[in-house]
Amino acid sequence: MKFSYKEITKIYEEFNKDIDSISSDDLKKKYLSKKGNLKDLLKKIGEQEKEDRAKFGKEVNILKNFIEEKVEILSSSLKPKFSKEQIDVTAPFEKNTPEDKKPKLLNKLGSTHPLTQELEKILEIFQKMGFQIEESRQIDDDYNMFQSLNFPIGHPARDNWDTFWTEENLVLPAHTSTMQNRILRKYEIPIRVVIPGRCFRNEATDASHEHTFYQIEGVYVDENISMSHMFGTIKAYLEAFFETELDIKSQPSYFPFTEPDAEFVISCPFCKKEGCSICKYTGWIEIMGCGMIHPHVLTEGGIDPKKYSGFAWGFGLDRLVMIKNGIDDIRKLHSGELEFLDQF
Ligand code: PHE
């Protein structure tokens, strides 16, 4: 028999066409089984002229290995479980998702995440009140996280705010207060700045604790600023946010970077102090930590505490969005569940 590549090439081309249209089982049957195409070709090795036999055999084996490898990949776990076809990673999500696995909501247009929706509303309220906006950092250093906030090295309160450190001695911020020193240095008095940003805690998660969440910090500095300015400002903001009048009170608290410090408490915007599930039947909701900026923090920020005073606060955006929307589990906010997100 005259040596020719023709038959080998023919099977190669046929296989390349079949690979897109038939299942790995059928490919196995057609090419690799006892009655398969390749068996015929293997038989033909012996029919070759003596001097061509080795060459022909080698080519047939290359093709055989190629087909075995492809079929193996297709039928192995690498193969997408739901499709005979390979995934095109550049295709839109719905292209790679079989009908029965598609979330019911997939045909809908996307929407803004509830955290973003509320953040935009909050920033608009503060802008109307004359605040500027500055974003916080997602990685910071010991100076901004601790030293500038009146936590000297070795201060026991550092433990409460300790999070995750990199080998270069950088830290994931536990709160947006890490921005206070930068704000004090950067802005001219009067300073009115709000700072939204992502924060991290070394935290076991549950329905009300997440390791990653958002805070919004406020920093206000001018001459003759007192706690009544602080209470008035925060109250005005929260009434605009909840779109209702609120009663307020404060509870003592402790932060190394404020003096005095307070926990800001509002009357429940939903039950008007009657008691409901949102306020846990107490009529009141603790909403944020705040206080007068500590003189050490002002000095460290280049501001003379004898001449100026100011206040700061920090509240959790996630918690506020939960309260406003009656969300019972903070983890839902970062879950990416479409059924959850579709409600907003
Ligand atoms: N950073 C504090 C917290 O995360 C809140 C706070 C901010 C308190 C500013 C006082 C002043 O709880």
Features:
9 strands; two-stranded antiparallel sheet; 344 residues; alpha+beta; single chain; elongated; BirA Bifunctional Protein, domain 2; binds phenylalanine; 12 helices; 2 domains
Q: What do these coordinates show?
A:
The chain is of the alpha+beta class. It is built from twelve helices and nine strands. The mean pLDDT is 90. Bound molecules: phenylalanine. Phenylalanine (PHE) binds next to β8 and β9.
Nutshell version of this structure?
By secondary structure, this protein is of the alpha+beta class.
Global geometry: elongated
Strand content: 15-25%
Ligand catalogue: phenylalanine
Q: Tell me which CATH architecture of the largest domain applies here.
A: 2-Layer Sandwich
CATH homology superfamily of the largest domain? Bira Bifunctional Protein, Domain 2
CATH-defined topology of the largest domain: BirA Bifunctional Protein, domain 2
Task: Report Rg.
Answer: 33 Å
Break the fold down into its secondary structure elements and pairings.
Layout: H1 6-21, H2 24-32, H3 37-47, H4 50-75, H5 114-128, E1 132-133, E2 140-141, H6 142-145, H7 158-161, E3 170-171, H8 180-186, E4 191-200, E5 212-222, H9 227-242, E6 248-252, E7 258-267, E8 284-293, H10 295-300, E9 309-316, H11 317-325, H12 338-341
Parallel strand pairs: 1-4
Antiparallel strand pairs: 2-3, 4-5, 5-9, 6-7, 7-8, 8-9
